[in-house]
Amino acid sequence: MESSRESSQEREKLERNAPIVADVASSSEDIAAKYEQAEQNYQPKSFKFWTILIGLYLAVFIVALDRTIIATAIPAITDEFHSLQDVGWYASAYMLTGASSNLVFGKIYKYYSTKWSFLASIFVFEVGSALCGAAPNSIALIVGRAIAGLGSSGIFSGGLMIMVPLIPLRKRPIYYALFGIAFGVSSVLGPVLGGLFTDKATWRWCFYINLPIGAITVLAVLFFLRIDSAHEKVSLKEKLIQLDPIGTFFLIPSVVSLILALQWGGTTYAWSSAKVIGLLVCFATLFILFWLVQIYLPRTATVKISIITQRSIAFGAIFMFALTGSLFIIVYYLPIWFQVVKGDSAVHSGISTLPLVLGLVVFSLVSGKATQKLGYYVPFMLASPLLTTVGAALLYTLAPASNHEKWIGYQVLYGLGTGAAMQLPMLAVQAVLPAADISSGMALMFFAQQLGGAIFVAVGQNIFSSRVVSQLTGVPGIDAQQIVHLGATQLREVVPAQDLGVVVQAFNYGCVGTFLVAVGLSGATLLAAAGMEWKNINEKEEKDGVEAEMRFE
């Protein structure tokens, strides 16, 4: 055992000036080797170590930013392209491809090089962003958004997979907290930056900004991260079969059908229309067929039944689904509340959401450090919904007369709860699954995250629109449908002064109605957290460490 430690120290000295080696072999026999590799690669005082991590955080930042930055740019885009009828596609195209391809990337990272799969994902994302920025018409913009969404799902999974062999499990909570901060802060700041680019330059910079930031990530990973060994060594034919083409054939259109039904139902088409009902039936049928494929063709399954039925994985996915759905409702509709009800500009409304960012950042760091110290992550998953439920419930009480003390305090409380547990389900994946299944487990969590955001933004839009229309229908001189489709920045310019008070009250009623959904979702995260297993990440790593010492003795 002593000779093992000495040889490990010698290897560390020899490789101190070499590129960081990330051994991402994922077969279950390599647990001990992965433990040894993480211990060796963990160099928190190394320039190369932080260059790689900053590159990963920047990639997550622009991917999350792309979800929300377009919100304040849409009025300018529709003015240029005369494409008001395509507004729903600008957001949904990105979410459709992102959510539907997440699970596939879990298999890609299992059978192909993590480094090159991650770089390929960034390339796809950058191509989509460039197409969006240079789009000559609305169709090109939608296609670009779909391409960028495809790349985004690979970036999320790959970023965390790269961190696995770089950082020992006991040290990961604080680094995952930074990962969560990058995601949360960019999600909230998206509308602010979108407003700034649109007002001060052009809406096209909402997408061009991704190109230089993505280039930094590419350079960091390309030159400082070296993959030392391959994944499971199988033939190319077997790799393609393992991507589960049959299951994917059913999964992708099922997710697309669901999101389109939620986007169109009650707004573009009535819920009772043949198109919406047909989409829902299509979703249910294809989704059932997907799971039948997973059950009866387990060797090539995208999601092993043993993974999804593992207690912490199942409840962790529900937790992630509900938490992200709640967050995105707040992120999308709180700026609208500030713009319409308070009369703020797009930029100022974004600044007004900074208390949410503050709470998220502070408690992400606190929970990350505390989890690293205690070894247990479940206590913070239980604390999170207590804070988010109260925070969302208080946001539901907002009214046109609410002062800044209220909306600042409510946001901070909600942000604290979100930051407390945003990335902890990812930690649970590594605590309960064998090494061979970690990539699939993480992909499942990101699938739940993407799906939660996509579904509940659509649900929120339906609730918002229906509540506003219900308040304005029958009011003399007001076309309720026309009002609800106006941009928030245009409302005060178009609505006559004598009708503005009624319209503001209606929009307040619509916004707080979406916050009520966030309350329910926050409550669901409490039930999910209660179902998690109490695993100590420090004890698990000590066990892996013993295996490593026995292997290298």
Write out key terms for the chains shown.
553 residues; mainly alpha; Growth Hormone, Chain: A; 2 domains; two-stranded parallel ribbon; 2 strands; 77% helix; 1% strand; globular; disordered N terminus; disordered C terminus
Description:
It is a multi-pass membrane protein. Keywords: Membrane, Transmembrane, Transmembrane helix. It is found in: Membrane. One of its GO terms (cellular component) is plasma membrane. Residues 52-537 form the Major facilitator superfamily (MFS) profile domain. Strands 1-2 form a two-stranded parallel ribbon. The radius of gyration is 24 Å and the shape is globular. Helix 5 runs antiparallel to helix 21 and helix 17 packs parallel to helix 19 (404-421). It has 2 domains: 2-244 and 302-552, MFS general substrate transporter like domains (Growth Hormone, Chain: A); 245-301. It is 77% helix and 1% strand. It contains 25 helices and 2 strands. By secondary structure, the protein is an all-alpha fold. It has helices at residues 2-14, 31-41, 47-68, 74-81, 87-111, 114-133, 138-163, 172-200, 205-208, 210-224, 236-242, 245-264, 274-296, 305-308, 311-341, 346-351, 354-374, 378-396, 404-421, 424-432, 438-472, 480-484, 491-494, 497-530, 537-552, and strands spanning 20-22, 225-227.
Spatial separation of the terminal alpha carbons: 5 Å
Report the CATH superfamily of the largest domain: MFS general substrate transporter like domains
Unreliable stretches: 1-32, 544-553
Choose one word for the global shape: globular
**Please, what is the oligomeric state?**
single chain
Keywords: Membrane, Transmembrane, Transmembrane helix
InterPro entries: MFS, MFS_dom, MFS_trans_sf
Domain Major facilitator superfamily (MFS) profile: 52-537
GO molecular function: transmembrane transporter activity
